[in-house]
Amino acid sequence: MAVSVNLAKLLDRAYEDSSLEEVLDAPVSALAGVTDAKAEKLAEALNVKTIGDLGGNKYVAAAVALAQLGKHAG
User: Which residues contact 49 (CB under 8 A, 6 or more apart)?
Assistant: First the structure.
């Protein structure tokens, strides 16, 4: 099953037409709103260099899970 997603609002203009594989291999700074300086800090602190690294990071996954739980808590 083919899936189509518009990533224009999530990515810098240079990456909007990239394949999923290219996006996952792109630097974190390819995400809209993430500067090179912020991406460098993530690389230093969490060894996160690509969007794929960020998405697979255990600390990011834990934070996302906790935020989702918080939305559904009392």
Answer: 27, 28, 43
SS (H, E, C) the chain: CCCCCCCCCCECHHHCCCCHHHHHHCEHHHECCCCHHHHHHHHHHHCCCEHHHHHHCHHHHHHHHHHHHHHHCC
pLDDT tens-digit profile, the chain (74 residues)? 777 777 788 999 999 999 999 999 999 999 999 999 999 999 999 999 999 999 999 999 999 999 999 998 86
Structure tokens at 11: 């990515």
Domain residue extents for the chain: 13-72
